[in-house]
Amino acid sequence: MPAGSPNGQVERSEFATADPLVAREFMDRAYGGRLLVQRTRESTTRVALSHADAGDFTVSDLRFSADLTFRMTGQGTVIINTVFRGAIQRDRRKGADRFAPGDVYIANYPGADYLSHVRDIRTCTITFPAALLGAVAGTCADGPAAPPRFLSLRPLDAAARDQWKDAADFAVRTLANPRAHQPLLLGNTARLLAATALAAFPNTVLLDGDTGADRSDAAPAALRRAIAYIEDHHTDPDITVADIAAAAGVTPRTLQYAFRRHRGTTPMGYVRRVRLAAAHADLQAAGPGTTVTAVAARWGFHHPGRFAADYRAAYGRSPSTTLRA
Questions:
Q1: Which segments of 196-235 are extended strands (E)?
Q2: I need a labelling partner for 2 at 20 to 30 A (CA). Which of 52, 195, 247, 271 fits?
Q3: How many angstroms separate the CA atoms of 232 and 280, rounded?
């Protein structure tokens, strides 16, 4: 796929194939998705794409005309989809996420590894470098650092979903206007997309409530490594203080001290905080039939009363109130 020119030129391309092997190669190269070739209800497997590459971000109109399954493996980019047609399901260890027309979701991100099933879909797909998240959030101000991490594939709420759609529409209109094909405008559009993603989707910047630069200045490198490990492995039900300490390169005792001094909690307390934020995001995005008990159990909270008390302390209302909102 051609790369956008740094001098403000927007490169456009079209791609279409009915060959599943060609489609598999395309998905792997373009989006980090390995198409699993299989029999579908249609005789052909058609993939079609209209693509505009501005260098710092890309916008694609992506269409699959059959029922397909592919494995997504995160690269150094963030991919966010707006669904126009069809049905999408993403299978993960703690359940499945389903998306329908009108939905917005994070389709891929660094470290992702999951199965995705699509049925006759059309999406607006926007891609930008994951490093841009750190640039707009300030997490790389003191040198190389891991970018912010998303805690949910779904936006915070309907308003956040619409906020992303507005930013995506702006990006599409910018690329459609040749007068806007200037490095300054395109670069700022890319930053707008990254900033909107951080505002619209639950992530570690929103969780901490401060900038990454502040966090880096206040905490030693070992604590930053521990936090990064927790944010990458909070879905693991068997995570322990020993695991976190080993990832941070310090002893468990040193780790306990660092968390109490710089975060006012314990390592496992921080794990619960991250999981609570993920449960909060799931409750906000829950569909019909979802229960508080099921969401709590999904994130390792098996005592309903304790979960409700912790949730109210963090968010000022009960989890059932969030679910009904």
A1: none
A2: 195
A3: 18
∠ Cα 66 89 113 (to 5°): 105
Residue 12: count other Cβ atoms within 10 Å of its Cβ: 12
**Per residue in 188-212, pLDDT tens?**
999 999 999 998 887 777 655 433 3
pLDDT digits (tens, 9 = 90+) for 108-144: 888 777 777 888 889 999 999 988 988 888 654 444 4
Q: What is the mean pLDDT of residues 161-175?
A: 94
Task: In whole angstroms, give the CA distance from residue 15 to residue 222.
Answer: 46
Joined tokens for residue 269: 């307390």
What would the two tokens of residue 69 be?
A: 């399954």
> How close are the terminal C-alpha atoms of the chain, in Å?
43
Angle between helix 241-248 and 252-263 (nearest 10)? 90
Following CA atoms 205, 278, 36, 109 in sequence, which dihedral angle do they give, to the nearest 10 degrees?
A: 0
Contact status, residue 322 vs residue 290, Cβ threshold 8 Å: no
Give the alpha-carbon dihedral of 277, 84, 163, 134, to 10 degrees.
Answer: 60
d(CA 35, CA 21): 8
Q: Residue type for 106, please? A: I
**Contact by Cβ (8 Å): 279, 295:** yes
State how far the Cα of 87 lies from the Cα of 99, in Å rounded to an integer: 6
State how far the Cα of 1 lies from the Cα of 267, in Å rounded to an integer. Answer: 43
Q: Quote the tokens at residue 141.
A: 């101000």
Pick the CATH number of 11-200 from 2.60.120.10, 3.40.50.300, 2.60.40.10, 2.40.10.10: 2.60.120.10
Q: Tell the CATH topology of 219-324.
A: Arc Repressor Mutant, subunit A (1.10.10)
| 33 φ/ψ angles, rounded to the nearest 5 degrees | -115, 125
The residues spanned by each domain of the chain are 11-200, 219-324
